Amino acid sequence: xxxxxxxxxxxxxxxxxxxxxxxxxxxxxxxxxxxxxxxxxxxxxxxxxxxxxxxxxxxxxxxxxxxxxxxxxxxxxxxxxxxxxxxxxxxxxxxxxxxxxxxxxxxxxxxxxxxxxxx
Length: 119
Known about the structure:
The chain is an alpha+beta fold and 119 residues long. 60% of the residues lie in helices and 16% in strands.
């Protein structure tokens, strides 16, 4: 039994010595691990500011895709009202960013929007 424990310990040491950043692994295997909605959300997350503009991006974050529905977290009810009037324009911009008419609906909800250095 000691040989098995030593082999396991050696494998753990090998993993530590040849460590790979989790981001590198996820990027490499994202296409096989994630569904289409996850890939689209990842793509949208990277280009969110470009798609909606700096002012809107400061108050919002894409949260999830559910089919043709995008859920977006917004930091206040005032912004939800403002964005609901811009919904069609935002959907057109996002579909342009994604390169196809994936998005058919956006639903906004109030939540905490973390600062991430944009704007």
